[in-house]
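Fill in residues.
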């Protein structure tokens, strides 16, 4: 098996065990509107930017409340959860291995800059990534499942997508990587 020229890593659910924390914050947010999010709905939120998640939740809970109000409620809840983010077993060793093998790597996440700051403050090893494409990158008009986040990382790395691996755990992220032809 031939090694790739680059590996693009998702963050939540791949390197950090944050998916249960994020799900809990959305569940608690929906409860504020007397709505229970199903497991299928939670799966639809996985791997997407907060604003994109809020749009879906707004439709499900059938509220006239603005996206901004929904995001404000969710942010209070998620900010309490994120300091508990722990690395997935083997994640740190995998990133160090890639660096030692001189593989080009990038972090491609739907997490915003604010969210990443909280996660990396308790997981400083995330700063081993020189290239980080965050969900609120001003040069990305659409998040996962759009290919834009992965295409931006490929541009920074200067590698061919067919020689690049994407490591993802969500449907939205996998579709994003496939659409970028990785």
């Amino acid at each position: 098996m031939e090694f790739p020229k680059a590996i693009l890593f998702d963050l939540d659910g791949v390197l950090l065990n944050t998916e249960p924390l994020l799900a809990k914050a959305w569940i608690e947010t929906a409860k504020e509107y007397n709505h229970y999010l199903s497991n299928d709905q939670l799966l639809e939120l996985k791997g997407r930017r907060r604003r994109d998640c809020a749009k879906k939740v707004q439709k499900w809970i059938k509220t006239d409340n603005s996206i901004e109000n929904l995001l404000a409620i969710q942010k209070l809840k998620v900010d309490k959860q994120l300091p508990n983010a722990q690395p997935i077993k083997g994640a740190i060793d995998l990133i160090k291995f890639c660096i030692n093998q001189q593989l080009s790597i990038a972090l491609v996440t739907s997490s915003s800059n604010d969210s990443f700051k909280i996660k990396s403050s308790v997981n400083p090893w995330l700063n081993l990534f020189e290239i980080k494409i965050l969900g609120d990158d001003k040069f990305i008009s659409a998040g996962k499942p759009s290919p834009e986040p992965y295409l931006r990382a490929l541009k920074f790395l200067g590698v061919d997508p067919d020689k690049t691996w994407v490591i993802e755990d969500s449907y939205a992220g996998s579709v994003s990587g496939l659409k970028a032809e990785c």
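The CA atoms of residues 7 and 73 lie 35 Å apart.
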